[in-house]
Design goal:
Elements lengths: L2 H27 L6 H4 L5 H33 L7 H12 L1 H38 L3 H48 L8
Helix pairs in contact: 1-3, 1-5, 3-5, 3-6, 4-5, 4-6, 5-6
Length: 194
């Protein structure tokens, strides 16, 4: 994966983290103190991107640990019986077929973005509700925002997780199938079933 692609991927994930960080901050301190005109200047872009990039790295790592503990091992066991075998298959594909390796990296990038957004949007629901209850006092507006916001963010959370789950399952299935295909094409016998 090229450095630029990885940078963009972490920016996309970091924007999700930025949403819940901002909602939590304005939920605690309010929003009247924020100098909006200074924040939308070109000079604020570099610090903003730096902050978003760092939060992208941090939340990607946290999401990776949580998702691995909760779901990855179950998906992995469908295709591989012993730990580390999937990594061997991936290394084999990377070393033997650049086209398949590029497709695999594209899929892994989408997987990481979906995982990051599933994690961040789940936290955003909590931050959003905290913000609404702490900063919006008008009853009708509060209810409308709660209904619409929770529906929208919940939709993003559920479908980001679902996308991640499907992409992860496809990643392991393809990794196994393509590695076996390449081994057969090269005349390498494989003794393991999984």
């Amino acid at each position: 994966m090229r450095t630029t692609e990885l940078f963009v991927e972490l920016i996309v994930i970091g924007i999700g983290a930025f949403c819940w960080i901002v909602l939590t901050t304005v939920g605690i301190f309010g929003y009247m103190w924020i100098p909006i005109d200074q924040l939308v200047s070109i000079f604020a872009l570099i610090p903003f991107l730096s902050f978003v990039y760092i939060t992208g790295i941090i939340t990607d790592r946290i999401a990776d640990v949580i998702f691995s503990k909760l779901w990855v091992h179950k998906i992995l066991r469908k295709y591989y019986s012993s730990p580390g075998t999937e990594i061997e298959d991936r290394r084999f594909i990377y070393s033997k077929n650049e086209y398949m390796a590029n497709l695999m990296e594209y899929g892994r990038s989408r997987l990481r973005i979906s995982r990051g957004w599933a994690f961040n949007s789940f936290i955003t629901i909590i931050a959003f509700n905290f913000f609404i209850f702490s900063q919006i006092t008008e009853g009708t507006l509060q209810i409308q925002l709660l209904v619409w916001g929770n529906f929208l963010i919940g939709f993003i959370t559920i479908f980001s997780w679902y996308s991640w789950y499907q992409l992860t399952d496809a990643q392991y299935r393809r990794s196994k199938g393509e590695a076996n295909f390449l081994r057969r094409e090269m005349g390498i016998r494989t003794s393991r079933k999984k």
